């Protein structure tokens, strides 16, 4: 009892020191209010998320999705600056004044080729190509929910501090956040909180891979493939030669490297030598410097392919992201809040839906009950990439994953899209909104936590001066065309 009383008194002192006015409440009371408020507003944010799920707009084309989130924030008292960093769908929504300044990231882009109805069998939406296979419709809605709840607390209790909700388009290969970092939109921010949909609940402790991506374009000479093949110079031959050389190179790169490609243009008819072909490459590695070196070798392979096939080559850098810099000071604080919030409880109907989804995997999945648990605080191997990495090299950053898909579900799958269109997804979204809100409250009311996080960040950064891997190019607004 003595310990609980001391903790309550400490929370009161911290808030009083941070905000000044006498109507402040203890931190614990604020957290209880936040959890209650978010539960009460769940239906509203669920509606927002599912509307964006319906829109299913791909990177830099998320006009309606971004507008809906902006409208929701404006209606709740935020000042919204739209079209930042030369990106029409990017925005920064701000409420409050003074320090600390806490940022919350909100994504909302879908993936091409993943159209899917909210049913437990593969079934596309008629007339629609894209789908939210990574759950970014939930991502954006939860982050907006957290921002609005924090605004309410700052306003009602006259707390000192500023909340910034960042609308960040085109995470899926478009590197939207990189341009926002490059334009200085995170300057003056003390800490950033984010999350990502997943099939489990855990603090994000995996070091995402740095990534460089580009489209390589080869131009040759068209000719009749049977009557005059000697007159042709095939862009497709160049693409295939490049791919072969890069595949041979896999033996001679660090084993953590990941290289993938798709041929986006290879000709129209077999009897016409294609005078144009394009291949789209991703190069990934845990270290940003190694990515740059490996990518340079891929460029050399493209140059060699052009030389050997009598074609010309040009390439366009599409994206480039840093690895994710973890901040354990913040991660430990977030883990406590996530444990408090807890996981996702499925209704009988949702359990039936989940069993049908798991039956489609072709392998034994974890029990559905795993969605209700919180994973231990442990490091994980990362395999994907995220432009949150660039934010993390600019400001102390922390994130979580929440179970928005049934256990065992892979990201970028029709099963993930289907779950995201149901309450299986939106219940996980609420877990994320609650956890981010509680963690941001800790940052707003505990100067020591923020100071320790910054100290760790400065030690990890050392003398490194941020430099975007995508260089000086303008946002690739048409990279999905």
Automatic annotation (TrEMBL):
One Gene Ontology term from the biological process aspect of the record: folic acid catabolic process
One term of GO molecular function: para-aminobenzoyl-glutamate hydrolase activity
Superkingdom as given in the UniProt entry: Bacteria
Gene3D superfamilies given in the database record: 3.30.70.360, Zn peptidases
A GO CC annotation given for this chain: cytoplasm
Entry keywords, A to Z: Hydrolase, Signal
UniProt keyword annotation of Signal present: yes
SUPFAM superfamilies for the chain: Bacterial exopeptidase dimerisation domain, Zn-dependent exopeptidases
Signal peptide range: 1-24
InterPro entries linked: Amidohydrolase, Aminobenzoyl-glu_utiliz_pB, Bact_exopeptidase_dim_dom, Peptidase_M20, Peptidase_M20/M20A_hydrolases, Peptidase_M20_dimer
Domain spans labelled Peptidase M20 dimerisation: 213-305
NCBIfam families in the cross-refs: amidohydrolases
Protein name: Amidohydrolase
